[in-house]
Amino acid sequence: MIVKLLATAAGLYVAVRIVSGLDYDGDWVTFVILAVVLALVNLVLKPVAKALSFPLILLTLGLFLLVVNALMLQLVVWLSHPERMDLGLTSESFFATFLGALVISIIAWVAEKLAGDD
Length: 118
Prior knowledge:
Layout: H1 2-18, E1 22-24, H2 28-52, H3 54-59, H4 64-79, E2 89-91, H5 94-115
Antiparallel strand pairs: 1-2
């Protein structure tokens, strides 16, 4: 679980750095909280979203999972708004969120493989 959290945090850090339109404004403590929120959203809500969108996932041969990942990140961006949790993560568009989710997925997958987590 710790490996997955660190992999998610690393992916989020890289995504915020390289994706134009996905920005973070805060300190490292808030960033850790943000990574925990993203990990919890992925742990709790992502399986539900995958189950509900199963026909679309089958129809697109799995490519719709990219959209599910983007929706989970968009939810975290929404929760990160100052009126809600004030975590400092903003996104200018869904496309920026989509690219950010793609980067997070790739970096987290690589980090988990390097750490030897199954």
